[in-house]
Queue: 4 jobs
Job 1
Amino acid sequence: MSHKTVRLKTHFLFWLYDRKGEKSGEMYNEIDLDKIDIHAEPPMEEPARQYYYMAKCREWVREFERKNGHRPCFFTQTFGCQMNARDSEKLTGILKKAGYAEADSEEADFVIYNTCTVRENANLKVYGRLGVLHGYKKKNPNMKIALCGCMMQEPSVVEKIKKSYGFVDLIFGTHNIFKFAELLWAALISERTVTDVWDGTEQVVEDLPLERKYSFKSGVNIMFGCNNFCSYCIVPYVRGRERSREPEDILREIKGLAADGVTEIMLLGQNVNSYGKTLKTPIRFAELLQRAEKIEGIERIRFMTSHPKDLSDELIQVMAESKKICRHLHLPLQSGSSRILKAMNRKYTKEQYLALAEKIRKAIPDIALTTDIIVGFPGETEEDFLETLKVVWTVRFESAFTFIYSKRTGTPAAAMEEQVPEDVVKDRFDRLLHEVQKIANERAQLLTGTKQMVLVEETNSRMTDYVTGRLSSNHVVHFPGDASLVGKIMQVSLDECRGFYFMGRATGASLSGLE
Ligand code: 5AD
Ligand code: SF4
């Protein structure tokens, strides 16, 4: 599928220079909204149109402040995956650019839920929280409530919200999140619910503001959507077809992040291994990684998620030779039974998965392999489940996310007969979790006593004078330190393994190039 990239007009560009004085990225967060004529007609091109609406919202915010004596505040709640977390940084960036202050609770003037619908539980949580929000809105008539994300791509959800939760002010989906400033403006001036959900898009809009949660690490979208149609999964229906960003745009963003102090990036996509295949000038994911690796200032590269069917030998080799790509690969297994894998439309067999895992472990001996497993897929027998356990015992994952199968309306699996009884699923889930945890602990134990490089992420909320950091393998370690270490890469001795995490002590000075 072709795609359209809409780039910022040159007159809006602000360049950021790195220490060598070379142009390294664009500071779109620096765009001066006061220079935009909000009384003129809105521009048609993106993202200039969105900056125009940000300027209009900012004027509204100033008026609010004049009337109420304080700035309006917002709260963003994110459900689901890393892609949603990254999208929420965009929402936050736009709200801040418009002048909103960030609140620390949902008792705010503007609350937005970025929803997930991958499993039913996520949906139920949103409906539950909406009841609470309604209570807040009764106390604060200025309050606006917005819903976006994957759940909103389901027509039945939007219908239900309109019928039973009429107090919601704004509903939009995953394809037009770039239009958030325009939609926010529409919601601010409207008394009725503003709804704008698109079926799909070919657009990739670049250069909108965003507010990173961490100063030193960042997600970077490399592609959107998914073409795989695993039979249980709703993602292809709510996130649309695969669209890759142009490599130049991605690399430009990473250079900008590096110049802004980011040392770790996480390349994000539903299936990063098929990145670039649909671009006019196709490029392989392994190639993109090699180009990203050359960017000065970036010390660590992660990526998420890989599909076993598309993981190439080239990628394994690039990872093995890389100094920057983290020793962690998330490789969803879903089931260890070839029969169930076929029904899931995963396009690999148990044997192929095992061969791939072995190949990876051999090529990169210090790799941490993690996975996703679903139990209770329709028709799963005890034998099928035992096959899954066998794969878990064989591969010995460093960690695994285990899920109870959730029936998603509209997916092929929802129509399959032989849905597995709840008590059987629960029993299998508990048995799987027990094995997964036991193995994860045993794997972690192997690292005890070693010294590892750790990126310090935060001060520890429970133990004063401790910080928490992450190994290249994604394991977590707590060790004595203070806020000055956050964002630095330290050498840490892993003195004690406590199941999934370590207690350690710093044994080497900061190696971050930020000093
Ligand atoms: N039920 C349970 N788990 C699911 N996942 C996706 N769809 C479903 C579903 N219907 C899991 C898969 C995927 C992870 C992100 O969520 O394991 O890898
Ligand atoms: Fe869903 Fe499969 Fe696409 Fe992952 S690869 S998002 S599980 S359809």
Note: The first helix runs from residue 48 to 68.
Job 2
Amino acid sequence: MLSTMQDVPLTVTRILVHGTLVHGRSRVTTWTGDAEPQRRTFREVGVRAVQLANGLRDGLGVVEGDRVATLMWNNCEHMEAYLAIPSMGAVLHTLNLRLPADQLTWIVNHAADRVLLVNGSLLPLLAPLLPRMEPLEHIVVVGPGDRALLDGCRPAVHDYEELLAGRPARYDWPELDERAAAAMCYTSGTTGDPKGVVYSHRSIYLHSMQVGSAESMGLTDHDTSLPVVPMFHVNAWGLPHAAFMSGVNLLMPDRFLQPGPLAEMIESERPTHAAAVPTIWQGLLAELTAKPRDVSSLSRVTIGGSACPPSLMKAFDEQLGVRLCHAWGMTETSPLGTVALPPGGLESEAEEWAYRVTQGRFPASVEPRLIGPDGSEMPWDGESAGELEVRGPWIAGAYYGGAGAEPLRPEDKFSPDGWLRTGDVGVISPDGFLTLTDRAKDVIKSGGEWISSVELENVLMSHPDVAEAAVVAVPDERWGERPLATVVLLEGTSTGYQELRDFLAERIAHWQVPERWAVVPAVPKTSVGKFDKKVIRKSYADGELDVTRL
Ligand code: ADP
């Protein structure tokens, strides 16, 4: 028997129309450095998005299914693109501006992007790559920049404001299939070619509802959210669409992502929420310790993308009164997977902490299972570890295969019965809280036992003289693999290896304590600010690290 309910497609178009009309007073504020911030209401943003859709269709000939790429910072124009491109039936393709040139070019060609919106400040990065970006027909430059860099390039060059100017504030939105492609994002491709995840209207709509819900970020039009996480990194964790759906004011940092400007914009614009990877919060903590600013407006901060060291969470609590809330996800999961809000009914702060430091709880739409080393499903007992697999309406079921090609379902990424293999190893508690111990490829396999690199890093980073620590597996004749600890010391400290070793030995099993140590000036980071362990392993293999053996 079928239901008697209406079957209305869940689309980004609906988010655009709703946000413009119902939340017209909410604002997108874009930081501009020294000048007065740029401020636009959702009503203005909605109208400009309609004009952009008209400009793309009537000015540049964009049709349904075309890929329109963006190479942009987090700003209001990027928000307009987020709304306009999917709503007109085209596909928003956000490009990660920190990727190496070859990967960026490969991705544009693979996605067959016809149009590219680019911030003027990024033209020096784009211009040399253009001859190799063959499918591009049009470049639309947003904001100031050295446009002479594009002289003589093959694609036609346009100005964003000119493309919008005088266009109608109405658009006959197409009736879209909710399963149609709305946006795409390539994973950073730590191994092999980058892989394209294509989000549907339906997945974005449902994901936006979850992001806004009280069990995730819990945001309403009383809030202002600061997405430091880039809009080119998994749709800024879904915040732009979720914000437009619920009227959440947005504070966009544009290209001002260094700790100083971030502290300044928090103090002056007073956001209530922010989202970023741990390395950003590490930097901000150091900045605020050196030069205090008022960041008390932040009532909640979402932190994820890599494991948040508990010491960082405690420091924010104690020194700044700001609560960091841990979350886990990945490009393939839109990205919202888990959020670590402690359950109700707890009696002490210690009990709360035990939950806060986990990766968090799964919402109903993200169904997890743990697959143990022998391929069997592991119980949720908080102890049995396995690789995490997930499925749900905003979880990828395949990668984009390229124009006209079949989707890709590599065996190491998708189980035969269609679940996403996350490559993350961990345990799940009986009440559905996930604790990750490692990425499958970063686990240290020492003499038949597994050592969690994340656990060693967390303990090391709780030492008062340690700014950052990254632990990787290195080959060992006797044990197969052993941990190598690379440590960044805080300025003005000179703690010795022996002291760090003793500090670890007091807190973890003695056989897990590394013998190999190196102090480094900085931990290498990936294009999205995570520890780049591949680079550390390579420097070690190439003999570039000054390693001390204890
Ligand atoms: P990439 O694989 O290029 O890093 P993603 O941004 O999709 O791309 O990264 C997803 C991965 O980041 C997850 O599979 C997981 O390993 C890691 N990750 C994300 N959030 C957390 C977290 N809170 N704790 C530990 N690891 C995390």
Note: Residues 413 and 528 are 21 Å apart (CA to CA).
Job 3
Amino acid sequence: MREIMADKDVLILGIESSCDETAASVVKNGRVILSDVIASQADFHEKYGGVVPEIASRMHVDAVYPCIKSALEQAKVSLNDIDAIAVTYGPGLVGALLVGLSAAKGLCAVSGKPLVGVNHLHGHICANYLCFDELKPPFICLCVSGGNTQIVLVKDYTDLEVLGRTRDDAAGEAIDKIARVIGLGYPGGPKMDKAGQGGNVTAYTFSKTHMGDTLDFSFSGIKTSALNTINQSKQKGEEINISDFAASYQTHIASILVKQTVEAVKRTGIKKVSLAGGVSANSFLRKAFDEASNKYGLELFYPNLRLCTDNAAMIASAGYFEFINGRVDTLDLNALPSLKLGK
Ligand code: KG4
């Protein structure tokens, strides 16, 4: 398939609906974004303090075809020009995934275009290819989104090995939950990031978790130690200094993410490191990686902020690499809410 495609541009329509963003995009050759349409539901879920799955599914139903139509129009192409339709089939909220997946299958059924199922986390990794033309595997990717935290060895465009993963909460979850407890609301990550600007990063301390000889993570104990600090302050009638607390907490989480990633670099000898997923937008994490980069001579890649969080361009990019590697799914492809990365 690679040779057949080599002399011709390959256009992929990507569709994403795994959580609270409905998105569609057209990407050329896995690296050039021709359109990138996102309909975010975040404002609707804010009053509930988190994503309400049924509301998310219903809103995806309203938004999915308008997003696809806009993505084709903005790219100035028709469905006929598209080589394959790539869609997220997991991990994510099952009802939400089914909307994008059914829309993609419907389009494939009527147009005869190939369907390519994409792992959402693979999409996050591929956001890096959309930002850096020069980035080629192998590299290490720290994938940190709302529901996942893992260190991935990207051996080739579609050959991924998970070197370490969280055993409980994702880093994003640990930030979002504490953000809610200290009254910052939803979505917590960006609000916590903003609140911590200028704060004292050593004002508060949190527990450390030892993961033995593994490259795994554990954030639930750290989250509990943050909750204990908040509760103890309340019992003493003292106010938490929100800015200092946010700065200390995010710096602590960032130091753990960096430590394990640097360990992965040492074990593999690969110094090219990328970040991926919503939490990779975090300024404390980026600062910690910048410092590690100077210390250990890393070559760092951060996707731009818009491509860190959920979007369909990254799904189209991952779909492109899967497609040219020969992946085509049948129309009975189902949603897999707990889909894992790697073999
Ligand atoms: O990748 P993403 O959009 O969705 C998933 O696939 O999970 O990530 C969403 C996560 C949320 O936890 C959100 O709070 C977090 O990314 N996030 C941030 C920042 N921007 C988004 N977390 C910390 N700092 C940020 N600046």
Note: The mean pLDDT is 95.
Job 4
Amino acid sequence: MADLEIDLLTIFPGLFDAFLDESFVGMARERGLARIAAHDLREWTDDRHRTVDDAPYGGGPGMLMKPEPLIAGIEALAGPKGPEREARVVLLSPQGRCLDQGWLEEAARHQRWVIVCGRYEGVDQRAIDLAIDEEISLGDYVLCGGEIPAMVLVEGMVRLLPGLLGNAESVAKESFTQEILEGPQYTRPPIFRDLEVPEILRSGHHAEIARWRRERALEWTRLRRPDLLERKLERTDPPPERNGPAEPSEDSE
Ligand code: SAM
């Protein structure tokens, strides 16, 4: 059994062909670390036209994904929703929780997944209520379908697989893992179009280099994503009681 097992449910399985074969995802599959397969939702239709969508009640633009094929597909891949179900079933949706590294790290502890890619104007709510465990968004914008968000999710999960990346340290040190951004990085040549690699990085003084990197990382985070530092501070600030007796509040007796 692979460390990570993902079934993707989509009306465009062909979109995943190259994605599943190339780069780290392809490597993880080849090495048997991950089993990932894309399934055509239309396999779970039972009419001549293999219909997966229908018009929304109450009117409005576009079509919605019908509940019957979705429920049939999810239940065939994961079983019915409930405490016995091993797989976590995720729907990609702009209305879901926004994806971040924290979610991926928590997800890395779970082995079985079914990832559902929405299309059209979205999904009949009953299918969500009856079969989906969580909804995940890629951000506050709307794409045409859940396939590209699903690829983002899969790649984020695969690269956390133990034993996949040559240097596990690179995962531990990169942006967001330590709740700050990674600072600037350089490779050869030492001078390129008059721009020089900082001397310290070529000095061989590992402790100095580590300190320089930490300072640059903090500086970049302060400039580019001050919200990350504020959140980090909020979490690490000791609660006021620990600093001494609490100030009496206006309404204390
Ligand atoms: N009418 C929907 C709404 O306003 O929330 C948008 C539907 S969108 C055109 C079709 C599908 O694309 C969604 O069901 C979802 O699977 C996917 N999708 C679009 N934007 C997304 C996002 N930001 N994150 C995750 N999935 C998204």
Note: Residues 42 and 49 are 9 Å apart (CA to CA).
